[in-house]
Amino acid sequence: MNKIRLNKSYFPEGFLLGSAAAAYHYEGAWNVDGKGVAISDVVPRGAFDGRTHEPTSDNLKLKSIDHYHRYKEDIALFAEMGFKTFRTSIAWSRIYPTGEESEPNELGLKHYDQVIDECLKYGIEPLITITHTSELPLHLSEKYNGFHSREVIGLYLKYVETIVSRYQDKVKYWLTFNEINLSLMLPFLIFGINKDFKDVSENEKYQALHHMFVANAQAISVIKKIKPEAEVSCTLAYSPRYPLTPNPEDVWEALSDNRDLQFFTDILTTGEYPWYMKNYFKQQNISFEIEENDHVIMKENPIDFLAFSYYSSGCSAALGENKIRGNFFKARKNPYLAENSWGWQYDAMGLKIVLNDLWDRYKLPMWVVENGCSMIEELEEDELGNLTVKDDYRIELISAHLKVINEALYTGIKVMGYTSWSAIDFVSGSTGTMLKRWGFIYVDYNQDGSGSLARYKKKSFEWYKKVIESNGQYLYSSDSEKERQ
Predict the structure, then answer these.
(1) Disulfide check for 45: which of 49, 174, 249, 257 has CB 3.0–4.6 Å away?
(2) Within 10 Å of residue 291's Cβ, how many Cβ atoms?
(3) What is the DSSP string of 53-76?
(4) How far apart (Å, rounded) are the C-alpha atoms in residues 19 and 276?
(5) Model pLDDT for residues 395-437, shown as the tens digit of each residue
(6) How far apart, in whole angstroms, are the C-alpha atoms of residue 31 and residue 62?
């Protein structure tokens, strides 16, 4: 097939173009208005660096950029960019501080009333992640070992019913969990298993994962009963694997690594464990409890669309050590791709491959819920003397990925939306620092916790505004090309 070269936008009317964030990254106010302690509040550094006994002053997320009190200012900036949609999460521990309360925290519910209403005021469609990575109430981890206990499913469903009943007339799109496939690598952050990740057995991981699959299916059922027209998914972190060489052993390794991703999409769409995973469980002596009705529940409640983050690809090889890491995935370095200061190799063609593979396999609409790049950034003056960040690299990367989505739409693949990561700078989840800056908006919050929290528009702010208001056509304009020169 010949390469497709487009010079116009094929984004349909109603294409949901915007950006994303999550409560634990940017809200701060960790103990305000009755909020309970979440897992993120005791993980001050990187995801693999372990927890503290209680929240400590070196955890930048406790204050973060204080979106909790500045949401009107921030959403006004999102509206100025013209967001059609904004993805954010609800902090579970704001609604049920320990997860076990009989009644929800009304102050927490009122806060999200205000946040969602502020979005709707500007015509911004909310995409709500019900619980993002590390937002599980810490109490449920310490008492029940998180989702390793079946009891947590019921507590999660109570929370789901509470927020969906509250916001049913305001929110159409829901995401049950964030990047569920990273849970096997991050059992404390996602499952809430209260152990060092090195001490968690495979049996424990897959038991918790099974409970999360059941919780996802039951949550879909709960949401549909409250609002039948709601659309629900569960996000995955997608990072395709290429064979490092044409050596058949490397090709097989890549196929096996890609199955590690397909395992999750297969279950979320069919409700059944694929045959290759059943073989894997048998070969590795992995066992976990499955109740009689679980598969019925999972089969009867598939996701409505595929939602995934995409940052990078990687290579697989039968021999040698996987050295690079992108969004928690380890892989071999691709000799044909450049890498950033964090060792991530960006690859727009990889998104094209993912969109085509997923469409071939499932024929479900898709939403790219995270994509972007992070850099160490500092403010500088522009030609008019305004403080900004000249982030041409962000413009170039997002442009390349949006053009891939446009091509997919042109060929008939259904893509519902694109929400970049992220709308605004905040504390990194993978490193716990402010060094990795992701947003279109720079925030004066520093690694030592100092800063005015003032917001500044980066160069990409105005560029993305033009892309959105033109429904993608600006990607192909000569002016857009000049901005990146």
Answers:
(1) 49
(2) 12
(3) SS--TT-GGGTTT-HHHHHHHHHH
(4) 36
(5) 999 999 999 999 999 999 999 999 999 999 999 988 899 998 9
(6) 8
DSSP state of 435: S
Contact indicator for 451, 444 with CB cutoff of 8 Å: yes
Q: In this structure, how many other beta carbons lie within 10 angstroms of the beta carbon of residue 439? A: 28
Neighbours of 294 (CB within 10 A): 17
Closest CA relative to residue 398, chosen from 13, 12, 20, 5: 20
Nearest CA to 230 among 115, 95, 126, 368?
126
Domains of the chain: 16-483 (3.20.20.80)
353-396 pLDDT per residue, tens: 999 999 999 999 999 999 999 999 999 999 989 999 999 999 99
Q: Is this structure's pTM higher than 0.90? A: yes
Phi, psi values for residue 22, rounded to 5°: -150, 150
**pLDDT at position 321 over 70:** no
The answer to whether residues 108 and 95 touch, using CB atoms and an 8 Å cutoff, is yes
| Token pair recorded at residue 183 | 């849970």
pLDDT digits (tens, 9 = 90+) for 224-266: 999 999 999 999 999 999 999 999 999 999 999 999 999 999 9
The label of the residue with tokens 């929110």 reads 171
Instruction: Report the alpha-carbon distance of residue 18 to residue 262 in Å, rounded.
Output: 27
Query: What pLDDT sits at residue 71?
Result: 98
Cα separations in angstroms, 155 against 19, 98, 100 = 30, 10, 7
Catalytic sites, residue numbers: 179, 370
| 237: amino acid identity, one letter | A
Tell me the mean pLDDT in the region 323-350.
78
Which residue has tokens 């983050």? 309
Tally of CB atoms within 10 A around 353: 14
